[in-house]
Design a protein that fits this description.
By secondary structure, the chain is α/β, with parallel strands linked by helices. It is built from 18 helices and 14 strands. The strands form 3 sheets. Strands 1, 2, 3, 4, 5, 6 and 7 form a 7-stranded mixed beta sheet that branches. The chain is globular, with a radius of gyration of 27 Å. Bound molecules: iron/sulfur cluster.
């Protein structure tokens, strides 16, 4: 039987990890389907790819919806004679199968290859081998290539009206670096074929490559042997955790005393051994002393699409569409809750800013978790809505970042597992978590908002999701109140 052909995506998989490649061909059913977050990334990539076709209009989409390689190749051969731009044309050579985003006819019976990426810059270590693989296959299949380009999103693009693809994309000529790589492709394909044909999976240990350049689909499978509180949860552990694993040390609690740890990592290990949180009382007191009543607890939810939805916004710019605000007017008072969730398909920023400006007290502290995010969003909103600049100038100095004491390990609970994120801190401190909520993290909030706002859904479904969004965002600010209350107790 001839060896199976290697597509450009499996070629990239093989470059990341030969074990992943082996599974792809020998135990595909064990590779989980992409989750919603990853699927959303793929969907955005598809949208960007379709937009890029307008850079070279008047072309032909080859075999839309067909995945059988032989059929796509046969259709390509029929259409290629027309000398029109080709979208998704396919070729094979030496066991490699390449479906090219865009092929552009140029003088001398040659073609330019254009690979489309939905990133805002060229990532040499991933994008160049990708294009080199395609160039190798096309050259072998008899296609005369003049130049190779990478079309990625222009990171300076700002939308004004309908998207102009010529301004939205940046075309980078990668002919020269790609030509330096094509010589190695044949050998790499041969090596991958040997991996695929092996009777058993290669013995590859987990390592930094599991998340670089992409988080591997087999992550859960390969990492499942790790105990809770493993050495890989070391705070900013870098390669230290993997070195410890190589020495046979899996548990954080088993790290020998002679292994140098940073102060925070040492706190992590000590709290685990003691089964007690670390509390720096004076530092917590100093942190809490900044808080002035009324205290406003504030959290935003945002969306950020590759192709900007609104005028005066850029690719992937985080546009706020929701806030939750809990106000505690004086010590011991019940919190008052105000919220905003944009309605309709227009730009949510003007109403968002108006409502926030209306409800946020003009005095007292404004507490957020990871304040640079909220401050950054407000600054960006003020750029397009300058009438809010004077108001923002009165807000910014009052912002207190609740992440600070956790990032600085002024308080650390072993259940945080080496992270200071609110999703870890809230349950560790209060026992309250997000498990019972339909929406449990910001990415899902954004996806769900986009789905029910711009997609085809029933009124009942839209209403249900909007309720879920209110609950999720509301818990973030309520959670901050609980965290501050707990810190007060510890500080005492
Ligand atoms: S999780 Fe890591 S070791 Fe396992 S297949 Fe993926 S990259 Fe390879």
């Amino acid at each position: 039987m001839p060896p199976p052909s290697i597509s450009k995506s499996t070629f990239l998989m093989g470059r990341q990890c030969s074990k992943l490649l082996w599974f792809r061909y020998n135990a595909k059913d064990q590779i989980p389907a992409p989750d919603e977050a990853l699927q959303a990334v793929f969907d955005q990539g598809t949208e960007v790819g379709i937009l890029a076709q307008q850079l070279f209009p008047g072309g032909v989409v080859i075999a839309p919806g067909i995945i059988d390689p032989q059929e796509v190749i046969a259709q390509t051969q029929k259409v290629i004679l027309s000398r029109k731009p080709l979208y998704e044309a396919a070729f094979s050579f030496h066991g490699g199968y390449a479906r090219v985003d865009i092929l552009v006819p140029v003088a001398g019976n040659a073609w330019d290859l254009v690979e489309v990426k939905s990133t805002t810059q060229l990532k040499e270590e991933v994008h160049l081998p990708d294009v080199a693989f395609q160039a190798f296959v096309l050259a072998g299949a008899g296609v005369k290539l003049r130049k190779c380009f990478l079309a990625h999103i222009n990171n300076e693009f700002v939308r004004h009206g309908p998207i102009d693809p010529q301004k939205f994309f940046t075309l980078e000529d990668v002919t020269q670096p790609v030509s330096m790589m094509t010589g190695d492709i044949e050998e790499q394909i041969d090596a991958m074929q040997r991996v695929i044909g092996a009777k058993s999976q290669p013995d590859i240990q987990i390592g930094p490559h599991c998340d670089n350049p992409y988080t591997c689909a087999l992550h859960e499978h390969c990492w499942s042997f790790l105990p809770d509180a493993s050495v890989l949860t070391l705070y900013r552990g870098g390669s230290k955790g993997f070195s410890l694993l190589k020495r046979g040390i899996q548990k954080l609690a088993d790290i020998p005393a002679d292994v140098p740890l940073t102060d925070n990592q040492a706190i992590q290990r000590a709290t685990l051994l003691a089964g007690q949180p670390h509390i720096d009382g004076p530092a917590l007191t100093a942190f809490l002393s900044q808080l002035e009543y009324p205290i406003s607890y504030l959290d935003f939810e945002t969306l950020g699409t590759a192709i900007p939805l609104f005028d005066d916004s850029s690719p992937y710019q985080q546009i706020p569409f929701q806030f939750s605000l809990h106000i505690v007017r004086q010590p011991g008072a019940n919190p008052e809750h105000f919220s905003f969730l944009a309605d309709g398909t227009g730009d949510p920023r003007p109403d968002f800013m108006r409502r926030l400006c209306e409800k946020l007290p003009t005095i007292g502290s404004v507490v957020t978790y990871n304040a640079s995010f909220e401050i950054g969003r407000l600054k960006q909103c003020c750029e397009v809505l300058p009438e809010f600049k004077p108001w923002f100038r009165t807000v910014e100095p009052r912002v207190v970042d609740l992440l600070q004491p956790f990032r600085g390990f002024r308080y650390y609970h072993p259940q945080q597992n080496g992270t200071a994120s609110m999703k870890a801190v809230l349950p560790a401190l209060t026992g309250q978590g997000y498990d019972n909520l339909a929406i449990q993290e910001g990415g899902a909030a954004s996806r769900e908002y986009l789905r029910v706002t711009y997609g085809e859904v029933t009124t009942a479904e839209r209403r249900r999701v909007r309720q879920d969004l209110e609950e999720y965002c509301g818990l973030d600010t309520l959670g901050m109140i609980q965290i501050v209350d707990q810190l007060k107790r510890f500080a005492k």
